Structure formats: C-alpha cells, structure tokens
C-alpha cells in the first residue's frame, strides 16, 4: 500500500514538474520571439534611416585648365567628409556620373541636350541613424557644409522627418508589446510555480513543525526552481531559434548578423526564466512558512 502511494506521489511530482517546465518554455519562447522582432526591427529601422541621404555639392564654376587642381581639392574634401561624426557612408559623384544619372532619370540616350557636363560634382552622404533625428539633422548639414570646398548642401528634410517619426512610432509599439509579454511571462510563470508549491504546502509545514529552519526548508525548493528554470529556458530557446531558422530560411534572409545581440538575448531569456522561477518559489514557500496549520486547508 505504501509503495503504491509513493509511486502515485512520484508520478504526481513528475507531472507537476513537466507542467511547470512546459509553461516556462512556452512563455519564454513568446518573450524571446518578441525580443528577436524588436532587435531586427531596430536594425531595419537604422538601415532605412541610412538610405536617407543629403547631397553636398562642389563649385561648378572653374576653368578647364584648373581641372587637375580642382580634382585634387575635391578628393581632399571627400576624405574630410568621410571622417565627420554624422557621416555613416559617403559616395563621390563626379560630373560625368552626375550627367549620366540625369540622362538615365530623363530617359535620354543622346548627348544632344548636354553640350557639356552642366551638373556639378557632389558627395552623397548617408547620415548615421541618430543624426536623422529632426533635432540633429540641421546640425549635421551645418557640419558638412562647413567643409572647405563644399558650396551647398541639400536634402529632403520633410521626407526625413516623416520617415524618422513613423519608424520611431513603430518601434515604440513593438517595445510596448515586448514589455507586455515580459509582464505576462512574470505572471504566468509565477502562477505555475505557486500551484506547484501549493501542492507541497503540507510537506513544508510538517518540516517546519519538526524543527527545520526556514533556510533549510527553502534550499531544496530553490535548487529545484533553478533546475526547472534552466530546463524551461533551454527548451524555450531551442523552440525559438528553431522557428526563427525555419522562418528566415523560407524568406531567404538571415536578418541580423550581429551575434552579440543574440548572445545577450539568450542571457536575458535564461536570466528571466531562472530569476522569476526562483523569486516565485521563495515568495510562495515563504507564504506557507508564515501561515498556521489551519490556514493550509483554506489557502
């Protein structure tokens, strides 16, 4: 009879642990998914911002005899622009290249309309994402325009402001959903742990009544919580990266290439899984340690 009771208790304990691990894995999978979406959304937001360029123009009026001197000056100016703080990427566009682009945009194959290269050479500058901010873009343009050799800097500021505001609005929504999933993760994991500890409330109180110290009672529960948190986090990460690998393979894009961000995401998932599990275990166990025997029947 005693043997059958022990077997029943072991099965119930095993079932309880499996339920907790699955709950942790599912919740952390969703949390990690939101983390991956947020990371990639930020990267693509920066990528789009970098496609918004300003054009710095050289002086178009000079004698043909000074062309070599002007070419050297433009080369030096281009190098100076490349190392400016707001500049992410710079591309030099010569007069010939500018004329060719103009013909292409107008659909003209002939040189009949262009007796000479009437377009000035220029530098196409992609700004760093933080300088696309409407509050900093004027500062960036001023810095570029102050470089010797540059006579004019033009940009479509209204387009930049609209794109910047829309991207930031999308990122704020994604961040908001990520925080919501974090709160849900805390609540759901906490509830799973509380149900597990609730099933052991009589064991906890019995250990306390026979003289066991609270630290002694808490220790095995905390160790078990760490183990369950690690297992749940590990399973959640396997599911997360499995689904993400399948998704990126299907669409033919690997998205973010920065492995450091994936590393921090893995640490975050493990940290959240273990921290919430341990804290929930301590709080739930402490509750029954402070309660009376009669309270155990009405908790």
UniProtKB/TrEMBL annotation:
The FtsX extracellular domain, residue ranges: 54-153
Family matches, as InterPro entries: ABC3_permease_C, FtsX, FtsX_ECD
Subcellular location(s) per record: Cell inner membrane; Cell membrane
Name listed for the protein in its UniProt record: Cell division protein FtsX
ABC3 transporter permease C-terminal domain ranges (all copies): 177-292
Species this protein is from: Chryseobacterium gilvum
Gene3D superfamilies named among the record's database cross-references: 3.30.70.3040
Lineage: Bacteria, Pseudomonadati, Bacteroidota, Flavobacteriia, Flavobacteriales
Function in brief: Required for cell division and gliding motility.
Membrane spanning stretches: 20-39, 170-193, 221-247, 262-289
Assigned protein family: Belongs to the ABC-4 integral membrane protein family. FtsX subfamily.
Entry keywords, A to Z: Cell cycle, Cell division, Cell inner membrane, Cell membrane, Membrane, Transmembrane, Transmembrane helix
Pfam family, one: FtsX
Membrane topology of this protein: Multi-pass membrane protein
